[in-house]
Design brief:
Structural class: mainly alpha
Largest sheet: 3 strands, parallel
CATH topology of the domain at 1-133: Rossmann fold
Shape: rod-shaped
Order of helices and strands: HHEHEHEHHH
CATH class of the domain at 1-133: Alpha Beta
Radius of gyration: 63 Å
CATH architecture of the domain at 1-133: 3-Layer(aba) Sandwich
CATH superfamily of the domain at 1-133: Glycogen Phosphorylase B
C-alpha cells in the first residue's frame, strides 16, 4: 500500500492503515472486500481475479510481465497490465484504476465463470494424469528419466505461457491495428470531404475575383463620369457667376431708369401746376389751346414710357440710356 501511495500521490491515495494479516485465509478474506486490486504479485492477482475482482497488474521484468499477461489471457480485459517503463506510467495506472473501478460490477460474473472453467480444467487434467504416468515398476524406467521429464514439463509450461502471452499480445496489436485502420479510413474520408470543400471554395474565390474585376471596371467608369460631372458643375458655376453679374448690371440700369422716371414725373407735376395757374390767369379761349397742348404732351410722355419699358426687356445692359 505504501508503494501504491508513493506511485499515485496523496491526492489520489490518502494515508491508510496497513492491514494486519498472517494467514492465507486472512489475505483471501481481506481481498474479497476490495472492488479493485492493484498489485505487482502474480498470486495476489490470481486470488483477486478468481473472486471476481478486476486487477491492475504492475510489472517490470520479462518474467513477471509474462506471468501477468498469462492471467490477462485467461481472464480477459478485467486484468489490465501496466509496465513500469511505459511512458506516462503514473497516468496509465490511474486511468486503469478508474476504468476497473467503474467496470467492477459488470466484469464480476465473467471473472467468476473464467475461474470456474480453469478449476474444472485443472481437475480434468489431474483425472487424466494417472494414465499419462508410467508405472514405477516398469523395467525400462530409469531414475534420470523422472528428472528429465520434470525439466521437460517445466520448459514446456514456460513455452506455453510465453506462447499464450504472445498470442494475447498479438490479438491486442491486431485490435490496435484495426482501430488505427478505422481511424485512417475516417481521416481519409475527412480528407476527401475537405478536398471537395477546398475545390468548392476555390471556385467561389474565382467567382469573387471575377466579380471584383467587374466592380473595379464599373468603379472606373463611375469615376470618369464623376470627373465629367465635376467639370460640368464648374462650367455651370462660371455661367451662374456671369448671370449674377449680368443681373446686377441690369438692376443698376433699372435703378437709373427709375431715378430718371421720378425726375421726369416731377417735371410733369411742375408743368401741370403751371398749366393750372395759367388756366386761372388766361381767358377761356387761351385755356382751351393750352389744354390741347398739355394733352399732346401727355400722349408723347406715355409713348416715351412705353418705349422705355420695351427697352428695359430687349436692350442689353451695355446700351446707353
Amino acid at each position: 500500500m505504501e508503494s501504491i501511495a508513493k506511485l499515485l500521490g496523496p491526492a489520489r491515495w490518502p494515508a491508510r492503515r496497513a492491514l494486519d494479516v498472517d494467514a492465507l485465509e486472512d489475505v483471501l478474506e481481506q481481498g474479497s472486500r476490495c472492488r479493485v486490486v492493484v498489485t505487482g504479485s502474480y498470486h495476489a492477482a490470481v486470488f483477486a481475479l478468481s473472486q471476481g475482482i478486476p486487477v491492475v497488474g504492475i510489472g517490470d521484468s520479462l518474467h513477471y510481465m509474462t506471468k501477468l499477461r498469462g492471467l490477462a489471457y485467461q481472464f480477459g480485459d478485467a486484468c489490465t497490465i501496466v509496465a513500469v517503463r511505459d511512458e506516462d506510467f503514473r497516468q496509465r495506472v490511474a486511468d486503469a484504476i478508474d476504468h476497473a473501478w467503474a467496470a467492477a460490477e459488470e466484469v464480476r460474473p465473467g471473472l467468476l465463470d473464467a475461474a470456474a472453467d480453469q478449476i474444472e480444467a485443472g481437475r480434468a487434467a489431474y483425472r487424466r494424469l494417472p494414465g499419462l504416468i508410467e508405472h514405477p515398476s516398469s523395467p525400462d524406467r530409469r531414475p534420470s528419466d523422472q528428472v528429465d521429464g520434470r525439466r521437460f514439463h517445466d520448459a514446456l509450461t514456460a513455452i506455453t505461457w510465453e506462447r499464450d502471452a504472445l498470442q494475447h499480445l498479438a490479438q491486442k496489436r491486431q485490435a490496435l491495428i484495426g482501430a488505427l485502420q478505422t481511424t485512417c479510413d475516417l481521416r481519409q474520408r475527412e480528407i476527401e470531404v475537405l478536398s471537395a470543400e477546398a475545390q468548392r471554395r476555390e471556385e467561389v474565390i474565382r467567382e469573387l475575383a471575377s466579380e471584383l474585376t467587374d466592380v473595379r471596371r464599373v468603379l472606373g467608369e463611375r469615376t470618369v463620369w464623376a470627373e465629367r460631372m465635376v467639370l460640368e458643375a464648374e462650367r455651370r458655376g462660371a455661367v451662374i457667376t456671369e448671370l449674377q453679374s449680368a443681373v446686377e448690371e441690369r438692376t443698376a440700369w433699372a435703378m437709373r431708369l427709375k431715378d430718371e422716371a421720378e425726375r421726369r414725373g416731377a417735371v410733369i407735376a411742375d408743368l401741370q401746376a403751371a398749366q393750372a395757374a395759367q388756366q386761372q390767369a388766361s381767358p377761356p379761349r387761351a385755356y382751351s389751346g393750352l389744354r390741347r397742348l398739355l394733352s399732346r404732351l401727355f400722349v408723347v410722355h406715355a409713348v416715351w414710357w412705353a418705349f422705355v419699358l420695351e427697352a428695359t426687356v430687349s436692350v442689353p445692359p451695355s446700351a446707353p440710356l
